[in-house]
């Protein structure tokens, strides 16, 4: 199963042997596999490394069928992914029959009943077992889904517990359990006779169906008893069944998760749930990926080889429908692999994108995942992060991540990676497969939201036939956001142990921009560890645009031996205009503001503007909202950063007290969900209730009318005919309140621009 990975790593080791004269004993995937097997010998399943495969939830969601699952399993094999180790085909929720809130239908022993319309039986064979048999016939493994507790239907019918004299009512509690979609589950009292027998019966049924993987969803600290019962039950079936826990597990209970299971989800769902009309695509978003960086750092001490931190599905395979750019896809796969996470694909395998398939079959990157070693974070900057791990052969693998919106150099050192002092270091980019050498500075020019995933090998001798690592960076000096004069320094760095020659720098920009420098921009020799720096002064052409953007490109060139190399780094400078009195500005997220005449602009990030998140930028009028006031605004344009991105009118007692101030409402437009009136019904300072209507169009007009503590929100597409969004009451509204324009991108780390005009209140 791992032969292609080991083969690729062996080839790399051979290349290093030729380049450095250093013997590399075995590849990290092979070594890690041996260690992991030994550590997990007593587990319910012995796995050489983090699991690879596919799961149904991201792309199929609530409508799995036998036909769909079998098609995905066949595609897993036919695509060649199975040859690389992707062998699990897992059915998530909705394989069972769910009639409603009374809970899943159950059999005579209280166990969930298969939805026979979706998974029809084959003679006496259960429909799930039939699919499992098909998956096994392809040489693959099959997984299934369950949640803690027992169905309320079993309790209502007081079903028997197989092989005992006990019944459901003997073991059930009245506490609701987390079945996120169907509902209708209650807890089990594991001090009661028959409780373990019930789980044993269910596990035995699953084993009889041929299950190889079981996901228990909705697990929290109160469910440790369920996890212990399932762990024991699966072991006693005699069938190796991988036990995975989900989701947002409490890190304080890591010892329990490690003892009782084979893997554990560290956070919520990776899916963005941002597709139009409930569509499963796009599968995820950049903000969903960036939310994992802190999780990987926090959970690193607790993963592998006895069990693995699970960062949820790998949303790669369907091109633009992934919801990520190609660079963002490489970032996700690199971070997951550095973290030794299970790689369970969420994409539709029957329509694989060729470029994505190439990423997924990159055996160098898969080898990083399969070593079973968790990377640690060694740098956390505003727009960059660095994660690294040391493998058993002494190599380090480092991820240089650019989380910002502009290209940048991301750097660390061999010492920071924990590598010993060495004459030279061989740097192999695991995505491009190119090799350079470094004297100890590990750096790369990384595109926005991108990554350089590099294997660093200490070499006792100079790395032959490898050019020095050379990087180019643009660093803009701090300046007022409305300034049209900027200063930037371009730096060409030789990170290697050998010099390069004919080094040169240049900076180009848009028409109308003036660029000048008094610094030398050329040098005949750039010495090892040296840098050529040139500082440029840039005068930008004035513009009346709310946010005027200018694109610049820095270039660096040099020669090494007979080869000439050209590097390029692009960057964008944004200039806005000062927002003047009587307006004020405030932001609870990263935001900037602009005013040009009656036009007002907000460029804001923000994960959400709905409980429990309250992240926004606002241009507001303090104390201008009162009984009898009418507020209107025109929305000329809104960035489609997410179908739930919001822009419009905000009112609250104190607009600068995000997450706290009551008397709170927002009348907003969204790109994919029309017009909303959100309000704080319980007065805790968080939006928690919503009315919605219409389909977004631009331009649009919004109008908010207040009478006492009653507010009515309207929208118009022609500034003439007004349509009611909703009418609500805010008992906590102060006699006078702040009122303003607001925007949030609904995508943490992503900036969206909204352009407003004709903002009035009376």
Which descriptors would you attach to this protein?
single chain; 762 residues; Immunoglobulin-like; 4 domains; 8-stranded parallel beta sheet; 7-stranded mixed beta sheet; 44 strands; flat; disordered N terminus
Describe the structure.
With about 750 residues, the protein is of the alpha+beta class. The protein folds into four domains: about 5-375, TIM Barrel (Alpha-Beta Barrel), CATH 3.20.20; about 380-470, Golgi alpha-mannosidase II (Immunoglobulin-like), CATH 2.60.40.1180; about 475-575, Immunoglobulin-like (Sandwich), CATH 2.60.40; about 585-760, Jelly Rolls (Sandwich). It contains 15 helices and 44 strands. The strands form nine sheets. An eight-stranded parallel beta sheet has the order 10-9-8-7-3-2-1-11. Strands 12-13-14-19-16-17-20 form a seven-stranded mixed beta sheet, with helices on one face. A hairpin with an 8-residue loop joins β5 (about 170-175) and β6. Mean pLDDT is about 95; it is low at about 1-45.
In short:
It catalyses: Hydrolysis of terminal, non-reducing alpha-D-galactose residues in alpha-D-galactosides, including galactose oligosaccharides, galactomannans and galactolipids. Residues 1-25 form the signal peptide. With 762 residues, this protein is α+β, with helices and mostly antiparallel strands.
């Amino acid at each position: 199963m791992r032969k292609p990975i080991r083969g690729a790593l062996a080839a790399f080791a051979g290349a290093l042997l030729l380049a450095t004269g250093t013997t590399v004993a075995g590849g990290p995937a092979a070594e890690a596999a041996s260690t992991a097997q030994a550590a997990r010998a007593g587990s319910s399943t012995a796995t050489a490394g983090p699991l690879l495969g596919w799961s149904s939830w991201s792309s199929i969601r609530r409508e799995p069928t036998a036909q769909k699952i079998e098609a995905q399993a066949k595609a897993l094999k036919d695509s060649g992914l199975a040859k690389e180790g992707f062998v699990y085909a897992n059915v998530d929720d909705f394989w069972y029959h769910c009639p409603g809130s009374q809970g899943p239908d159950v059999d005579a022993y209280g166990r969930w009943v298969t939805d026979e319309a979706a998974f029809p039986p084959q003679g006496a064979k259960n429909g799930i077992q039939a699919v499992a048999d098909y998956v096994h016939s392809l040489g693959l493994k099959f997984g299934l889904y369950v949640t803690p507790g027992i169905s309320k239907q079993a309790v209502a019918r007081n079903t028997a517990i197989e092989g005992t004299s006990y019944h459901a009512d003997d073991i059930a509690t009245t506490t609701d359990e987390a079945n996120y979609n169907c509902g209708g589950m209650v807890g089990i009292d594991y001090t009661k006779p028959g409780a373990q027998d019930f789980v044993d019966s269910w596990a035995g049924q699953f084993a009889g169906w041929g299950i190889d993987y079981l996901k228990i969803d909705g697990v929290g600290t109160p469910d440790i008893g369920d996890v212990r019962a399932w762990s024991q039950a699966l072991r006693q079936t005699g069938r190796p069944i991988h036990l995975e826990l989900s989701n947002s597990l409490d890190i304080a209970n890591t010892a329990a998760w490690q003892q009782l299971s084979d893997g554990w989800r560290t956070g919520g769902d990776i899916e963005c749930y941002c597709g139009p009309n409930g569509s499963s695509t796009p599968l995820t978003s950049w903000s969903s990926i960036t939310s994992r960086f802190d999780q990987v750092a926090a959970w690193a001490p607790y993963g592998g080889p006895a069990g693995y931190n699970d960062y949820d599905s790998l949303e790669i395979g369907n091109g633009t429908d992934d919801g990520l750019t190609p660079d963002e896809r490489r970032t996700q796969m690199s971070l997951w692999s550095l973290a030794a996470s299970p790689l369970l694909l969420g994409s539709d395998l029957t329509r694989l994108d060729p470029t994505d398939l190439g990423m997924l079959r990159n055996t160098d990157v898969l080898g990083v995942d399969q070593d079973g070693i968790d990377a640690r974070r060694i740098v956390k900057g505003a727009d960059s992060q660095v994660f690294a791990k040391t493998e058993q052969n002494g190599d380090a693998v480092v991820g240089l991540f650019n989380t910002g919106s502009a290209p940048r150099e991301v750097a660390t050192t061999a010492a920071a990676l924990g590598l010993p002092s060495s004459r030279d270091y061989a740097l192999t980019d695991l995505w491009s497969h190119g090799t350079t050498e470094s004297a100890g500075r590990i750096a790369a020019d990384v595109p926005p939201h991108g990554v350089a995933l590099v294997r660093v090998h200490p070499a006792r001798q100079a790395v032959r036939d490898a050019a020095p690592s050379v990087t180019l960076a643009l660093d803009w000096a701090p300046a007022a956001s409305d300034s049209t004069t900027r200063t930037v320094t371009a730096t060409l760095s030789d990170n290697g142990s050998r010099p390069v020659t004919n080094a040169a720098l240049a900076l180009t920009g848009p028409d109308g921009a003036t660029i000048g420098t008094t610094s030398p921009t050329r040098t005949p020799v750039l010495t090892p560890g040296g840098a050529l720096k040139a500082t440029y002064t840039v005068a930008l052409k004035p513009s009346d645009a709310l946010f005027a953007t200018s694109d610049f490109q820095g270039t660096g060139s040099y020669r090494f031996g007979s080869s000439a190399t050209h590097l390029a780094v692009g960057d964008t400078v944004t200039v806005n205009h000062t927002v003047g009195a009587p307006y004020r500005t405030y932001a609870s997220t990263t935001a900037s503001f602009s005013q040009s005449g009656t036009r007002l602009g907000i460029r804001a990030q923000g994960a959400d503007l709905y409980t429990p998140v309250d992240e926004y930028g606002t241009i507001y009028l303090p104390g201008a909202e009162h009984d009898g006031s009418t507020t209107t605004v025109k929305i000329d344009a809104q960035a489609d950063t997410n179908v739930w991105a919001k822009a419009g009118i905000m009112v609250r007692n104190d607009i600068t007290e995000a997450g706290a101030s009551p008397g709170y409402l927002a009348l907003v437009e969204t790109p994919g969900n029309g017009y909303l009136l959100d309000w704080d019904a319980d007065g805790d300072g968080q939006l928690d209730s919503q009315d919605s209507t219409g389909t977004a169009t631009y331009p649009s007009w919004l109008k908010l009318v207040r009478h006492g503590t009653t507010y009515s929100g309207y929208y118009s597409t022609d500034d003439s005919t007004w349509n009611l969004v909703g009418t609500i009451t805010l008992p906590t509204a102060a006699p006078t309140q702040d009122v303003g324009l607001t925007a949030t991108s609904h995508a943490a780390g992503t900036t969206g621009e909204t352009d407003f005009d004709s903002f009035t209140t009376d």
